[in-house]
Specification:
Number of helices: 5
Shape: elongated
Number of strands: 3
Structural class: mainly alpha
Distance between the termini: 58 Å
Strand order of the largest sheet: 2-1-3
Helix content: over 70%
Order of helices and strands: HEHHHEEH
Length: 136
């Protein structure tokens, strides 16, 4: 009896989700190519590197002026915290830009999903160039 109920539940879920008219087409995107060619990612990386270099120069100056080892350790901790914040903000900005581009391309191309090309052995429509173009 349990097998029959389980079978009916599986069949019902397949009908509910499998035949709901969702688009079965999916896109694939080469993330390495996006990371190397997208303008917004390049700009964000360059800005982040510039900020980190400026922060490092400030930290080195402050460390030279430190009067004790404890003060130097505190300054280093503060620098590391600020650097992590800058890196986190940059990652969030890049992720947001990527997510927006992926959503726009998926809507325009009427795709049910966009997957990483490296994770898909075959199939899917390559939308890498479209994603790069949207990430301005």
């Amino acid at each position: 009896m349990k097998k029959i109920i389980a079978g009916l539940m599986i069949a019902a879920s397949m009908l509910t989700f499998g035949c709901s008219g969702r688009n079965a087409e999916f896109g694939v995107v080469d993330m390495q190519k996006v990371e190397s060619e997208a303008v917004s990612i390049k700009t964000t990386r360059e800005d982040t590197i510039k900020k980190l270099k400026e922060m490092q120069a400030e930290a080195e100056t402050a460390l030279k002026a430190a009067k004790s080892e404890d003060e130097a350790k505190k300054l280093m901790g503060d620098f590391e915290a600020k650097a992590n914040l800058v890196k986190s903000e940059a990652q969030n900005k890049m992720k947001s830009s990527l997510d927006t581009a992926l959503n726009q391309v998926a809507k325009e191309k009427n795709l049910g999903a966009i997957l990483a090309k490296q994770a898909v052995p075959q199939g899917g429509k390559d939308v890498t160039a479209d994603v790069i173009a949207k990430m301005k």
